[in-house]
């Protein structure tokens, strides 16, 4: 993952400002916001009345999600940043702090499948380091970076994990680095709960239309996956986004330190 400069792609504001001239209202930061579950979450939270900062490494998908939100009359700010890079996240937090002094929700969605290991232990180390950076460190840096800005009370942290963290249904490095979020969320919930901040993990099962699976899974393997889903179909990014929206909304205020698996139901094995 290569760090890029933090910059505004496009800014759309359509309602009242606060006394200091900055846009007012509830703010949400969503990493990996240009595609898949991240894009769906950005659009859902914007439709729910949040001012959303969509974060990602590539400007083109971010520009597209800004346009999609604007077409519906919603407000999204897009910023290019690698959330696994400390300097990039520092710059991102500073840029958002210029817009608002309070963030209601941080959704750490950025993640990636992992490269195949190269030769020997050095290749294994490269694979695991890349997986940790993409799937664990990106969430840690984004969350801790924005922690001082989180609303107290009422702040919400949502980490996007994976059902694979408990099923083992992916590569070892991906499974382990997503599982790390399930342990870390317990520390977050315990430490930040007394301040009125909740922290939860949403763990999607097989979701169609994401870069994580597009072109990476053969039709035969996808068919095998469907046999293990009680509903007999893949999930959609919008369905995962709806779960995130619940957690960051009023109705999710008493859910804390949990792992919410959204997988269509697992078929029991005999």
Description:
This protein has 270 residues and is of the alpha/beta class. It contains 8 helices and 8 strands, in the order ββαβαβαβαβααβααβ. The protein has helices at 36-47, 59-71, 86-97, 120-146, 164-167, 172-192, 219-227, 237-248; strands spanning 8-11, 27-31, 51-56, 76-80, 105-108, 156-160, 198-204, 259-262. The protein has one domain: NAD(P)-binding Rossmann-like Domain (Rossmann fold). Helix 2 (59-71) links the parallel strand 3 (51-56) and strand 4.
Question: Helices and strands in order, then pairings?
Answer:
Elements: E1 8-11, E2 27-31, H1 36-47, E3 51-56, H2 59-71, E4 76-80, H3 86-97, E5 105-108, H4 120-146, E6 156-160, H5 164-167, H6 172-192, E7 198-204, H7 219-227, H8 237-248, E8 259-262
Parallel strand pairs: 2-3, 2-5, 3-4, 5-6, 6-7, 7-8
Antiparallel strand pairs: 1-4
Helix pairs in contact: 1-2, 1-8, 3-4, 4-6
Quick structural overview:
By secondary structure, the chain is α/β, with parallel strands linked by helices. The chain is built from eight helices and eight strands.
């Amino acid at each position: 993952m290569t760090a890029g400069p933090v910059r505004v792609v496009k800014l759309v504001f359509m309602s009242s400002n606060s006394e200091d001239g900055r846009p007012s209202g509830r703010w949400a930061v969503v990493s990996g916001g240009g595609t898949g579950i991240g894009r769906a979450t950005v659009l859902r939270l914007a439709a729910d009345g949040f001012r959303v900062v969509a974060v990602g490494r590539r400007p083109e998908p971010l520009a597209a999600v800004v346009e999609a939100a604007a077409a519906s009359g919603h407000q999204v700010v897009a910023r290019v940043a690698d959330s696994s890079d400390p300097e990039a996240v520092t710059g991102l937090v500073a840029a958002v702090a210029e817009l608002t002094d309070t963030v209601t929700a941080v959704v750490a969605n950025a993640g990636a499948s992992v490269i195949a290991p190269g030769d020997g232990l050095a290749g294994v180390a490269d694979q695991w380091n890349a997986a940790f950076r993409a799937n664990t460190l990106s969430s840690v840096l984004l969350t801790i970076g924005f922690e001082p800005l989180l609303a107290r009370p009422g702040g919400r942290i949502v980490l996007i994990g994976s059902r694979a963290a408990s099923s083992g249904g992916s590569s070892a490095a991906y499974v382990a680095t997503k599982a790390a979020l399930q342990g870390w969320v317990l520390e977050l919930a315990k430490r930040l709960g007394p301040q009125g901040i909740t922290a939860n993990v949403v763990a999607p099962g097989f979701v169609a239309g994401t870069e994580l699976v597009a072109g990476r899974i053969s039709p035969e393997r996808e068919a095998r996956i469907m046999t293990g889903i009680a509903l007999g179909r893949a999930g959609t990014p919008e369905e995962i986004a709806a779960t995130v929206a619940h957690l960051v909304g009023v109705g999710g205020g008493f859910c804390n330190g949990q792992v919410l698996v959204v997988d269509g139901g697992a078929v029991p094995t005999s």
